[in-house]
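Problem: given the chain below (363 residues), write out its structure.
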Amino acid sequence: MTNSTEVWVDSEDFQKTKVVERQLPALGGGEIRLAIEMFGLTSNNVGYALSGKSIGFYSYFPADQNWAKVPVWGCAHVAESNHADFTVGERIYGFFPMACHVDLKPGIVKDNMLIDVAEHRQNLPDFYNIYQRMSTDADTMKGLDVERCLLFPLFATSFILYDYLVLNNFFGAQQVVIGSVSSKTGFGLAQLLSEDSAIPQKIVGVTSKGNADFVKGLGSCDQVVVYENESEIDASLSTAYIDMSGDVRLTTDLHNHIGENIVESCIVGGTHWNAMGKRGELPGAKPTFFFAPGHISMREKEWGQGAVFQRGFAAGVKISKQLGNELTIEWTKSADGLRSVWADILDNKISGRNGQMISLLED
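Solution.
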């Protein structure tokens, strides 16, 4: 039997966590058991927690009662196999729980990917059921395991947001305002927009005073505005607001400042999750949660299964190589250490300059 260490989060109070040590059941027919080597932890995972019930992120790896296994992106290897197409040692990349082991049931299997078809995942967004077989990686992916875990999923979301704006012709906006632009998804989006010569829109990043120099140093924004100084943003320009923060104060102040010139107000993340609340009636476009799986599904029908994953991760490779040197990677290798990092992310104590990598697998 395999012993697994997991960290669970209280779905009603994200500050409460616990370490769960359990014996995994015998591996079922057609299943593979993965040993999770490493995974990244960012505010994006807080976003998964925030939408765990509404979108179903908690359902990918069910837990007991009000507890939840918040998903992460990581690299793993096959530790045990009851599937003819997988041998022990093969490396897999994808969506995992905060744990050292997980079982998958590959259904559709190709040279470069597999799709988990476990019964409890049948009605969940397909994008997160796709796992990459790392043996078929392109040369551009070699040696990028950390970036793959920590940055690629966020920059893939950046790409999806970029595509969403371009597809909708920016909703007629003359400027894009990115809330919590120091978040990796935020500055990834700014980078994609800034490097596209066909995009004339002004890019405005809103961030904390402590992260302002970091964002300015990236060179992706035309203007960087510190929280509480939103009045510096040009209210005469039609504006698409991309909200990575979830901060009701920021959203309210921006809408009241820019007014009816806010033509799109898109809620993406929750870096300031504890500042969320009811917004009431605001001038301009109604703030609406961005349902990434919906946009992905639409594009998959046009581009083919797995195409969004491939394009998004290609963008991730490019941005990582452009901006990766700006980040300092910090490693945590214990369950209690993971709980501490999770608490710091919730409390916004981690600088945008730092990336958190986790491994619960014993050496």
